User: What shape does this take?
Amino acid sequence: MTTVLAIGTYSDTDRAALENELAPVFANGPGDIAALPEDQRRQIRALTFMGHHPLGGAEMDLLPNLGLIANFGVGYDAIDVAAATARGIKVTNTPDVLNDDVADLAVALLIAQGRQMLPAADWVSSGNWAARGNFGLARKVSGGRAGIVGLGRIGRAIANRLAAFDMEIHYTSRREKETPGWTYHADPVSLAEAVDYLIVALVGGPETENHVSKEVIAALGPRGIIVNISRGSTIDEAALLDALESGAIAGAGLDVFLNEPDIDPRFLKLDNVVLQPHQGSATVETRAAMGQLQRDNARAFLNGDALLTPVN
Assistant: This one.
């Protein structure tokens, strides 16, 4: 009897591991649940979920014996956790195993933007270096003032890395935290006013929507750089685009967007951005660890053991 449903576009390696360890039924997205035979849907006790399409109460109700949604990823904003809790369904995610990769990318985006690494690479590959001489001067990044919006696991990993670049670390979070002398700000506007670089490391979801508002972006100023490795929804994207186009801020390094992968075409016309395809955790090693943790949570639930990383 099949008791697991796997939703999402898994890699060949993860799909094979799921088949070997959990023998699930596979579906591409939450919209495909209704097409499964009713007797098969009634057998499902655990759902392994990968993706950003909303998974809400209506989809959960199609699986009357569902007890677990094991998410692939640390962010679980696509899952209606309140609806799951109301139905007695546990939700898990895959934190910690991806902290290093996401933090590494955040720092890389900041350095790439400040040092103008992409246009400098184009200067070489286009032949301009030989034909027209040296590329223009870029900007020193080390020794600046960095502001972390959201000092959770990933935010702290980013701050630790930037501290090694001799940066002055400022942060905002739900509450002040124990740090090695970093400066706490109660609101993001105050944070933005105090720093050169603003790195967004919030969880997604309605509570953080447009947390980095038009006012926050304006407070950063014309030499400010924004890096976002959280969710596109955490920034007022229209205000960000306006600021980038007008020069109200110096630039941005972005791994996440609204409506990805169909991002706003205004981004593609900018020369002061570094754009990445939501790949913060996209290394072979980390994705393998994420998949294993997802499967371990599902197996623990089916065996009646304690969940490794519960959300609710």
